[in-house]
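Hi R.,

As promised, here are both runs. First protein below:
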Amino acid sequence: MESENTLRKRNYRTLVQRAEIIEQFHRSGLTRIAFAQSQAIPISTLSKWLTAARHASKKAPAVLFREVRLPVMPSSASQWAMEVVSPDGVTVRCREPLPVADVAWLLRGR
């Protein structure tokens, strides 16, 4: 006879394993119930993982910065201390240098 501890043993999965299972679910074309049964996962667990993955994908992507070397120009050639162009084409020009956090805030449109 199995002990109570054996019956209550949980099958923990890492975040990478969960992501792989979610990807398999999306490729499978099965319903949540059918997929959960085929993988021996409780339907509530699969639903929780899918909801968490959907919310994680909606988060704003991080703003990435890259150093760009420009040719040295006379100070009268440019009226801007800095100019940043986002991948979306948003341009931020400042007469004085700003901290990186402030530039990121501006690029996110807040």
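And here is the second one, sequence first, then its structure tokens:
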Amino acid sequence: MSSAQLYDTIGATYIATRRTEPRIAAQVWAALGDARTVVNVGAGTGSYEPPDRDVAAVEPSALMRAQRPADAAPCVAAAAESLPFEDQSFDAAMAVATLHHWPDPVAGLREMRRVARRVVVLTHDRSDTGWLNRFWLTRDYLPEVADLVAGGPSLTDLAGAIGSRMEPVSIPWDCVDGFFEAFWRRPEAYLDEQVRRGMSVWARVGPGAEQRAVRSLGDDLASGRWAERNRDLLDLDAAELGLWLLIA
């Protein structure tokens, strides 16, 4: 299933839980440097688009485009692997939490490099299976995620495709953007179906795995088992769970 098809299926309530996390945004925007014109690739509903720059957006899903606020940047329907812009049209190209949905992420990155002088990408190191074990949700309740991330290009491969450096991104404990790992210190959030609908992982593992994981987590929260297993997290202000910036 393409990213457009996926989000046309699951994205109806996406804007309710997915929004700009200011501390992560600050890191992304700093990486853009002095870029004045920016294209946001896989832009979704417009989160993380810098308000003080001239932004154009690219999003293949009609449902996601329809949820963009009225004052959001103009958005065209296109895929990352075939951007409808001339060479070096922008000072910078950015992509946030979208690369893992692209059929050919290396081709998409090279397209970003073609149309912009600077590239900034927020993504996961899907080849680092260590984060699957560091994150209690995948380790203890949803091991199927390992199959979803298997076989894709490594972060090193992605960085090498555009000659980028890599910068780790911490996830604050009270992150306001409801992506998959955002609630690492607030486990009760994963029991909320609306919260889960803002995370593509649940649609990809299927309803059987989702229901099993939610039921097991609910039982462990009620019994105190989750707190006992994860007491070391409760005093942390931020966690590193495989989120990185690629900056070229």
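A quick note on the second one: The mean pLDDT is 92. Let me know what you think.

Best,
J.
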